[in-house]
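Worked example

This section walks through a single chain of length 322. The input is the sequence exactly as stored; nothing has been trimmed or padded.
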Amino acid sequence: MKTALVCGAGGFIGGHLMNRLKNEGYWVRGVDLKHNEFGNNNADDFVIGDLRDPRVCESLFDRQIDEVYQLAADMGGAGYIFTGEHDAAVMHNSATINLNMAETARLKGVKKIFYSSSACMYPEYNQLDPDNPKCSEDSAYPAMPDSEYGWEKLFSERLYLSYYRNYGLEVRIARFHNIFGPQGTWTGGREKAPAALCRKVIEAENGGTIEIWGDGKQTRSFLYIDECVEGVRRLMESDWTGPVNIGSEEMVSINEFVDLIADVANKEIHKNHIEGPEGVRGRNSDNKLIHEKLGWKPTQPLREGIAKTYAWIGEEVAAAAE
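Given that input, the structure is written out below as tokens.
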């Protein structure tokens, strides 16, 4: 039986990844500062621990661990990342986790370690045109991420690649593009755009108005969680290091995205554009490389994923109101 350690297992992607690994027959240990708040936790063993502490990291390897999935990070949506108020914590906490995990994996003889980077590491200067963003893997340099979160992701990519070159640590690196779906944070300030907009539409009356940060013309692509996990597993099963994009190429403006959610909800929704953190003007996954190397590309239209996510958040909103 293969064994896996999922770091950040109390989070959205980590919870879904644990389920996938269990379904494949792995023995899975999860670790996080908290349990998964939506009960999405099927680990064989779950450790409440702080990965900023190297002693906690070392304690996780009291048995042979074949694969490590390092998703733990100090992160959130635009309301958390782009205000500038959390920059020091984001950089210190996430970099410390990655420094600890890379060294511990080396010392413990881990066979493979996956690192979840982010599309936020791409240069801002290639994402100023909302209709023509450039996010191919080879466009990462000269580096100029739009946030300290992106800078830390870029640093950690280089950290893991240096461990690969110097110590032979088998690393796999993916750059996630806006992953969404059920069992994710949907309120409280750290939620991402899909969950936040679904919640706003759910809470609005038919014919009502919701607030949108910026003019709504900024573009993004969004990838459903099951497709993300499939991409991660294909990368880990391959002999290719990456980095590689894992995202959707179905780009929409935020205004179009709101209209799509409203259509799923069968509501008429008006938009009130206000000042707020927006991030880059345009971003879309470029999947040429992952399709060439792994034969992978998303298969589910954005609308299908939004319908599932909207229904789940609707249940959560109703439960919270009781």
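What to look for: DSSP finds ten helices and 13 strands in the chain.
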